[in-house]
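Worked example

This section walks through a single chain of length 309. The input is the sequence exactly as stored; nothing has been trimmed or padded.
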Amino acid sequence: MNLVALLTPTYGRDLELCTLLCESIDRHVKSFSKHYLLVPDCDLSLFSHFASEHRVVLPASQFLPAWLRPLPRIIQRKRRQFWWSLRAKPVSGWHVQQLIKIAAATSLPHQRYCILDSDIVFFRDFDLSRFRYPNSIPLLNMRNEVTEDQFHHAHWVETSHELLGLPTPPLPASDFIGHIVFWDQQTTRAMAAKIESVTKLDWIEALCRVRDFSEYMLYGYFVENDAGFSARHTRTPRTPCVSYWDESKLSRDELNRLLRSADKDDVAFSVASFSGTPVETIRAAVAENAAVRAPAALPHEAAGLAALC
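Given that input, the structure is written out below as tokens.
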């Protein structure tokens, strides 16, 4: 069938959010093969109850080399766990989540992946059957969105091109970071091989040495600079997810306004976990908006939705 697999890197602090994500997937997401939860080994017991016929909980160590090891949890900075090695400076859980996304997409037995962070909640039905291999999948490309005043994004543009052996483009440049992101396995493998060819290092070691990188930027710029793999993707300027990226906690009224801003093709929303918006507030807003939401796109609109997601 070559159905799309779902990937969610998560950890203990996002347990409640991940619970809400899984509930919404079970309610709304159709035609996928497996949903993989990728978690630090020390958090496996927290997530083991999610395991089912269609959901698999896997340890991060399955996707990491033996030379990259977690530091004891009592050694933290800003409540982040770190992994250490003799080959590079320590990397945080944020880095490791990016590494295991790439490693899982190259090694698990699926041709296509849809990557979902823990803070996503689906509120409309989303059928993934049209993204099965060998059909085209969406590539989020927000052109000219990265500007000089976006320090981190601008640096990720630079490091992506260094790792891929490409000349760094002038700013403004394209941004590929978003929610509900699709990857093709053969493309991801080729991207990793390209990094190894350029750096003469294992791709995980190369990323650990750089440290400031974005997995979505790497994938996006690799695709845009390879005609063969580019043909597997359809560019889209947005994903079907209403996103809140700020650090301020949302009130129930503010979250209701965010949900009401969704258009007819949006199937999910995301409130960044670092905003600290309580899960109870998110659940209440979902319940309040359920009765007034417009219906999801009808089957004959699928082609249009595919272009948007």
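What to look for: The chain is about 35% helix and 20% strand.
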